[in-house]
Automatic annotation (TrEMBL):
Region (Disordered): 1-21
Segments of skewed composition (Low complexity): 12-21
Keyword Hydrolase: yes
Protein's GO biological process: oligosaccharide catabolic process
Xref: InterPro entries: GH (IPR017853), GH13_cat_dom (IPR006047), O16G_dom_2 (IPR045857)
Glycosyl hydrolase family 13 catalytic domain sequence ranges: 33-409
Protein name (database record): GH13_30 / GH13_23 / GH13_17 / GH13_31 / GH13_ 40 / GH13_29 / GH13 / GH13_36 / GH13_16 / GH13_35 / G H13_20 / GH13_4 / GH13_2 / GH13_1 / GH13_19 / GH13 _21 / GH13_34 / GH13_26 / GH13_37
Keywords: Glycoprotein, Glycosidase, Hydrolase
Species whose genome carries this gene: uncultured Nocardioidaceae bacterium
Transmembrane segments: none
A Pfam family it matches: Alpha-amylase
Source organism superkingdom: Bacteria
Length: 543
């Protein structure tokens, strides 16, 4: 694979200016995830694209975010919607061209928005040139050594080499044919069979990914979201594991050396370039091991996303997260939704209750120190869509590994009273059907309503910018009513969330209301399913 180099005019010169106080921008940024095929479609083919993103950037600037993370847009057969990359240094024609990417990046930077792109180092697409060469080569060849090929077990090698399971369901191995068309060696794929795992023990793989990072850094991107960051290495002995699942296979110690190398690469560039790990872990401590001072800048805090709707669960995650990131002097991140999970309004019960809780959880995370990641459409209060079987596209659904992720990936409703809701020009329909009820939830409908979820997100993000300025990162938990979590952030802000089923008495530390996720009708109390920010009262609780 020849990695093309960017030319000099693609330098990072246009990167938005650094904050005056020298704090790296990402330490407290709000970053908005764009699932590229579902955000905005400029050419009317029913699939989102670069030009669509560019056209809608003013909307994002107005929303008040600091950065966007764009999911993979590289040439790909799209078996896993771009997480199966056939060429890491180009744009898939469905999404545009490199020139369209550059134009989008320049426009984003012009609006003060940073751009994070996805890098997918755990596996390539089976349509990648390296894999085609590996299949055409003999067992034991250099070409095969870029992937994980092994002989099978049992008579004629017809059993997979071990008991590992794909995260998408089924065996993590597929048997390839030899050059005469006879079933021969097996290759490892922790996801779909069209996503063969790379062999990170082969130094060529590391060199290639350094070149890929540099290709995009030279073009001016501000950072990377690292797909399956915890999965690059698997145990070398390929031994059976007790459960065969990824928990006992991933998090191999060698992966940290890769991120130390990437840290050094990022540090060579100006503008506080960064990387955020997608690493699913069993504890905030393990998450923190990816963000030590000489490794990655951030890792998604999935513990916040996975917490059930309960003050105790939220409290535990806040305490453990801040403790863990404190130990490595990193900043925390917070996230409620992304393109792999059921949208949080639905997780929290759906309907009005789910929406009220979703708004409350958002306000709580925005009050915490660190940065927050939003998923497109959550600012509209969108719920998970029940996608009919004939429209499903997610390989995890077909392999039986999950109930499917299509339901959170339905294209955004922008305007109008019926699908496609201005997702693309004309009346052509998007790649997944949108529910008719979304007519009340379009960006245009919600922009006209000061009580809408969109208006609330805009207020919350604007207020966060104002409040965050000058607040230190300290968090002090307050002694609050049962079913609630309250904390003081720095010396200026108090946040309380009520997850109990009843209105709850506010703590004495809660002074004037700054913002609430639902109306506060009765002074001194916080309604159920509500969070609010207050100025910290100077008076403290007696005793
Ligand atoms: C995590 C991505 O977020 C997900 O969408 C993808 O299917 C897997 N990694 C495999 O790349």
């Amino acid at each position: 694979m020849q990695t093309p180099r960017a030319t000099a005019e693609h330098s990072a010169a246009q990167t938005p200016p650094a904050a005056a106080d020298q704090t790296p921008w990402w330490r407290d940024a709000v970053c908005y995830e764009i699932y590229v095929r579902s955000f905005a479609d400029a050419d009317g083919d029913g699939v989102g694209d670069m030009a669509g993103i560019e056209q809608r950037l003013p909307y994002l600037a107005d929303l008040g975010i600091d950065a966007i993370w764009i999911t993979p847009f590289y040439p790909s057969p799209q078996n896993d919607h771009g997480y199966d990359v056939a060429d890491y240094c180009d744009v898939d024609p469905r999404f545009g061209t490199l020139a369209d990417f550059d134009a989008m990046l320049a426009r984003a930077h012009g609006l003060g928005i940073r751009v994070i792109i996805d890098v997918v180092p755990n596996h390539t697409s089976s349509e990648h040139a390296w894999f085609a060469r590996a299949l055409a080569a003999e067992p034991g060849s250099e070409e095969r050594d870029r992937y994980v090929f092994r002989d099978g077990r049992g008579i004629d090698g017809s059993e997979p080499p071990n008991n590992w399971r794909s995260i998408f369901g089924g065996a993590a191995w597929t048997r390839a044919d030899d050059t005469h068309g006879q079933p021969a060696q097996w290759y490892l794929h922790m996801f779909d069979a069209t996503q063969p795992d790379l062999n990170w023990h082969n130094p060529e793989v590391g060199d290639e990914f350094e070149a890929i990072l540099r290709f995009w850094l030279d073009r001016g991107v501000d950072g990377f979201r690292i797909d399956v960051a915890h999965g690059l290495f698997t145990p070398v002995d390929l031994a059976d594991t007790a459960t065969g699942d990824e928990a006992s296979i991933f998090h191999q110690p060698e992966v940290h050396e890769v991120y130390r190398r990437w840290h050094r690469v990022l540090a060579e560039y100006d503008g506080d370039r960064m990387a955020v790990a997608e690493a699913w872990t069993d504890s905030p401590e393990t998450t923190a091991s990816y963000i030590r001072a000489d490794e990655l800048q951030q890792a998604f805090n999935f513990h916040w996303l996975l917490a059930e709707w309960s003050a105790e669960a939220f409290r535990d995650v806040v305490v453990q997260t801040l403790e863990a990131v404190g130990l490595v002097d990193a900043s925390a991140t917070w996230v409620l939704s992304n393109h792999d999970v059921v949208r949080h309004v639905t997780r929290y019960g759906g309907g009005e209750t789910g929406l009220a809780r979703g708004r409350a959880a958002l306000l709580t995370m925005l009050a915490l120190p660190g940065s927050s990641y939003l998923f497109q459409g959550e600012e509209l209060g969108l719920e998970q869509v029940d996608v009919a079987p004939e429209h499903r596209e997610d390989p995890a659904y077909f392999r039986g590994g999950s109930e499917g992720r299509d339901g959170c990936r339905v294209p955004l409703p922008w305007a109008g009273t019926q699908p496609p809701f201005d997702f693309g020009p004309g009346s052509g329909q998007p790649w997944l059907p949108q529910p008719a009820e979304w007519s009340a939830l379009t960006v245009s409908a919600q922009s006209a309503d000061p009580h809408s979820t969109l208006a609330f997100y805009r207020r919350a993000l604007a207020m966060r910018r104002e409040v965050n300025r000058g607040l230190d990162a300290s968090v002090v938990l307050l002694d609050t009513a049962p079913g609630t979590l309250g904390f003081r952030r720095g010396d200026g802000l108090v946040c309380v969330i009520n997850c109990g089923g009843q209105p709850a008495r506010l703590p004495d530390e809660a002074g004037d209301v700054v913002l609430s996720s639902s109306p506060l009708d009765e002074p001194g109390t916080l309604p159920a399913d509500t969070a609010a920010w207050f100025r910290a009262a100077t008076a403290t609780r007696p005793g």
